[in-house]
Design brief:
The protein has 218 residues and is an alpha/beta fold. It contains ten helices and eight strands. Helix 1 runs parallel beside helix 10.
């Protein structure tokens, strides 16, 4: 799994997101790998027609109905998303909300990408059997210093912690990934994919960098 978190970067604002989706669709087909895009919520309808996985950047554990300003799983699913990122380091939520959201998303047959900041969290939350656990040390996010080179032992320990749950959860790694070498190293250490943001979105040539990362995952 190759996830591109667009955050709220200006580079993908308006219909610019369409170009990213087209490139991702092309490269996904070429290398036969799953590429997911997590756009700002209002841009979701612009990319659901492409053959890419579409993830919400966040969802709220709030009820359907009179809940203004929240992203409700059952409502957002009708925009044809495939899943959601939960508990990103820039949008952390309480443990009980994490548990509730994973349960709700499973019921809705949506993928769950649960972000954690350390091995203790990966071990604790792997027991909930999310689709993926993405380990992202906050201090490396957006730095260009990849977790796979700066703290490789963190990936191997996180892989072991996820395996200890003895379920279908797979580990992804993120934070600071900027090259194919970073991706290849993460794969060698046991990661089943990557969660990337600025390393893709702020690159000068999207097609070149997405292809470089994709080759490293094959």
């Amino acid at each position: 799994m190759f996830i591109i978190n667009c955050k709220n970067y200006d580079e993908i604002s308006g219909d610019k997101i369409i170009k990213l989706a087209k490139i991702s669709q092309k490269i996904s087909k070429k290398y036969k790998i799953a590429i997911a895009i997590a756009p700002p919520h209002h841009l979701i309808p612009l990319i659901t027609k492409f053959n890419v996985i579409v993830l919400a950047q966040h969802l709220d554990d709030k009820k359907i109905g009179s809940t203004t300003g929240f992203m409700i799983p059952e409502i957002v699913k009708k925009s044809k998303i495939n899943g959601a990122i939960i508990n990103h380091s820039e949008h952390r939520i309480p443990e009980q909300e994490i548990k509730n959201l994973i349960k709700r998303l499973k019921h809705l047959k949506l993928k769950t990408v649960l972000c954690v900041k350390n091995v203790n969290e990966s071990k604790k939350y792997a027991k909930l059997n999310p689709t993926f656990i993405a380990i992202e040390p906050p201090e490396l996010i957006g730095t260009g210093r990849a977790i796979s080179t700066e703290r490789p032992q963190l990936i191997t320990k996180a892989v072991d912690s996820v395996k200890s749950a003895k379920n279908s959860t797979k580990l992804l790694c993120g934070a600071g990934i900027v090259s194919g070498n970073d991706v290849a190293r993460a794969k060698q250490l046991g990661s089943k994919g990557i969660l990337v943001a600025s390393g893709i979105v702020k690159a000068k040539n999207w097609e070149k960098i997405i292809e470089e990362f994709s080759r490293a995952l094959v």
